[in-house]
Amino acid sequence: MLSDNRSRRLQSLFMRGAAALLLSLMAAAPVMLAASHAGAQTEKPVSGGTMTIINGSDIKSWDPAITAGTYPGGPMDVLDAVYGFIVYVNDKGVVTGGMAESLTSTDAVTWTLKLRKDMKFTDGTPYDAEAVKYNWDRAADPATLSPAQPFISSWNKAITVVDPQTLTIKLSSPNANFAAQVAELCPFIASPAALKVAKEKTDIKPVGAGAFTLTEWNQGISMTMARNPGYWDQPRPYLDTIKFAIIPETNSRIATVVQGGATMMAGYPYQFGSNATAPGVATREIPIRGINRAYLNQAKGIFTDVRAREAFYSAIDRARLMQAFTQMPGYKAPSNYFGENSPYFDSASSLPAYDPKKAQELFDALKADGKPFSIKIVTYTNSDLKRLAAYIQQVLTGYEGASAEIVEVDQASLIQRCKTQLDFDICVEGGVLVSNGAEPNISNLLSSGGAFNWGQYKSAEMDAALKEASSTLDPAAVKAAYGKVQKLVATEMPLYIFGEQTRSLLLRNNTGGVVPSNGGILQKQFLYVCTDACQK
């Protein structure tokens, strides 16, 4: 950890979230806790004004089915402003009502979605159960190319529209995490009328019922949105205008906030340095634990051999890798997917530790079998990730029979290069993936059809353990199932877990209404400009 104080603060935050999770699992009442504005601002909100949020890359399409990463500064951050999350996961890990009032179940099999009354898209058509069904049926069609297609296609045929505000979904087997998975994978609903007239994805116009409407899109540079006067939750949104500025380089993003050219950016304390104490600037921690990870291609190439995955873990000191990445000392390499403060953590199942001798033995054995360890590292053009990739390359070249090539792509192209084309051996995505609770991300990462399983890891045993964990509300049974998951992670090494961090916002100190959700995306309807400084 970066400091003892910060470690204790993170531990306290995590344990509170874990306690809430265990309480919800022990309850026999509805699986999903439905609420409207849990965690909303405590300051008195002010209407009017403009904020500019910096994102690292532009979106490729306004298609609500093309979702990728519920983290601040990512593509879904922009889609949320127009469409709004149908439900979202708050920073305590609780699924919360958004555009819908609730998504609940008493048995984890039959789920009921209750929409708010009289909602309309900005084209005047109703945001009703038929519209939701149309969007989910569309995303379930492989031709839509939705990343969530495997997930949605497993249940969309079992949707029943009960009335304009209600639909039910009957799953083929119990899934206690279904609501959280919807929030992560398919939360956006667009006007069916707007989707039907678009012949190509590039023709889709962003017609939603969210807090804002698009007024200008200067591709690759910025987009401007105006307050939606028909938004269901008046007087929200408070802002008149919200802007997104596209700035790929971290240092440029920081300078823009410090100089007052933007309201906020998402990042990590190691990136901010002394800029965090500049005049008019504040920081705000997003108390959501995440893991730094890289994907290992197990569909083709050297990492199809588990010995290569073990060699890679053994060859690199992950604490030093994090130091090279962040330029700060003091990191401790996580021993598994779950953090040490997780109720599911099992110290008996640990990833391979740094062991240069073992690594060389494995490299030699691979070479003797005609499998020289030569890998392609794919990442995007970010100064932090460049340092990380360069460190991996430098360390590997110190071993006999090991080498690495670095390929840099722009952030928006990383998914296509890695997930779609599988043109990598190791693919490093910036930022952290939320792991303050087990689901939905652990299944997305590790199940055979998982949306985040870029490495194409497939294990019937892992699939069974994940299903077992999500099919019960008994805390002891859940913990036992995740024990099996951890053992498989430690022995099969399906991905490379090299660090854990929490995100932070660097923001102007007059920024109010900061309500993080999912992986840290702010619920923009709550944002407002304070009359005076309201952040420290």
From TrEMBL:
Keyword Cell division (UniProt): no
Signal peptide: 1-40
Pfam family, one: SBP_bac_5
All residue ranges annotated as the Solute-binding protein family domain in the record: 95-451
Coiled-coil parts of chain: none
Keywords annotated in UniProt: Signal, Transport
Localization in the cell: Periplasm
CDD domains noted in UniProt: PBP2_NikA_DppA_OppA_like
UniProt cross-references to SUPFAM superfamilies, sorted A to Z: Periplasmic binding protein-like II
PROSITE patterns the record matches: SBP_BACTERIAL_5 (PS01040)
Domain of life: Bacteria
Gene3D superfamilies listed in its UniProt record: Dipeptide-binding Protein, Domain 3 (3.10.105.10), Periplasmic binding protein-like II (3.40.190.10)
Family, similarity comment: Belongs to the bacterial solute-binding protein 5 family.
Annotated PANTHER family: OLIGOPEPTIDE-BINDING PROTEIN APPA, PERIPLASMIC BINDING COMPONENT OF ABC TRANSPORTER
Protein name in UniProt: ABC transporter substrate-binding protein
Organismal lineage: Bacteria, Pseudomonadati, Pseudomonadota, Alphaproteobacteria, Hyphomicrobiales
